[in-house]
Design brief:
The structure is a single chain. The protein has 68 residues and is mostly helical. The chain has two helices and no strands. It is elongated.
Amino acid sequence: MTSSCSAAIREGYIAKYGADHMGWMAICPNVPDFCNKITVSIALSCISLVSCFVLTVISAHALMISKA
């Protein structure tokens, strides 16, 4: 999940700002609908990453309490 979230952020960054040293132009000025969708996708990806982390911590805590 961490790698997919970071990859989505990187692709969104390239779409918004481009990568001049590689010859990739920013596409957000030309296709704003794409950038809006990618922003929502990145936000949901980060929310799911944080949610999974919180659930893992809660589950580990509950397991530690039940063992004690």
